[in-house]
Amino acid sequence: MPTEDPRTRRLRAEFEQMVDLAARSELIEFEHFLVVPGLPPERYIVTFKCRGIASIDESYRPVFATEHKVALYLDGSYPTTPPRMKWLTPIWHPNIEHAEPHRVCIDNTWWTPGRTLSKVVLMLGEMVQYKNYHADQTPPYPIDLEVARWMLWAKEQGVLGRIPVDDRELRRAERVKLAEEPPESSDIVILSWHKQTTSTEPPEQEPVPRIRIIE
Fold first, then answer.
1. First vs last Cα of the chain: how many Å apart?
2. CA distance 19 to 118
3. Residue 177, pLDDT score
């Protein structure tokens, strides 16, 4: 069997860690898409089964949802650069665009090639839960200014309620369900991406990532 190149080994390790993450969580599921037969997946759709804000109503009060989806693409520049991301379901968060092109922001100073896809996923889940957000007009500025303004107003008026909106842990120490097995088929699935667009053991005292736009 030929020796795999470093990128393929990295992608295969990422997939194994994603399987383990899903097996340790009742709140995270994912789909993966094989683009090249025989190689590990580069494209994922992750579903968070936790409480988050999907929108606001006519009285500017939060409308909650318990299913949230994001697409992630590990392109040719990964892991030098973070995954490309696009939010797929209604979302109301200052660091995720609620309108097209639905970009997601993370701080580039947090990202290093040593980070992993599973760590990014955990970070995104905490954003949905509002454990992780930045609404103040200070660096790194929120990408969705409308949501950021609403959030500052809602907190002041007592409209937002309790933060985080879901305080459950996304990942347990033990495996909670059977891990998904990789499929035998290698169907090619093409997703639409806009250019502008969390290892198996928990990190020890990692700093909370700040937010920035990934170009």
1. 38
2. 9
3. 63
Confidence band of 110 (pLDDT split at 50, 70, 90): confident
Any idea what the Cα angle at residue 16 is, between residues 12 and 21, rounded to 5°?
A: 145
Transcribe 164-199 into DSSP letters: SS----S--SS--SPPPPPPS----------S----
Report the candidate in 96, 158, 97 with the shortest Cα–Cα distance to residue 127: 96
Please name which of 184, 172, 186 lies closest in space to residue 22, comparing C-alpha atoms.
172
**CA-CA distance, 162 to 175, in Å (whole number)?**
29
> What is the chain's alpha carbon radius of gyration, rounded to the nearest angstrom?
17
pTM of the entire predicted model: 0.81
Q: Residue 72, SS3?
A: strand
- DSSP-derived secondary structure letter, 192: -
SS3 content of the chain, % helix, strand, coil (to 5): 20, 15, 65
What's the rounded mean pLDDT across residues 51-57? 98
The closest of 123, 101, 97 to 110, measured between CA atoms, is: 123
Q: What is the dihedral of CA 165, 29, 34, 5, to 10 degrees?
A: 80
Contact 195, 75 (CB under 8 A): no
In angstroms, the CA 80 to CA 134 distance is 25
* Tokens coding 113: 């090639």
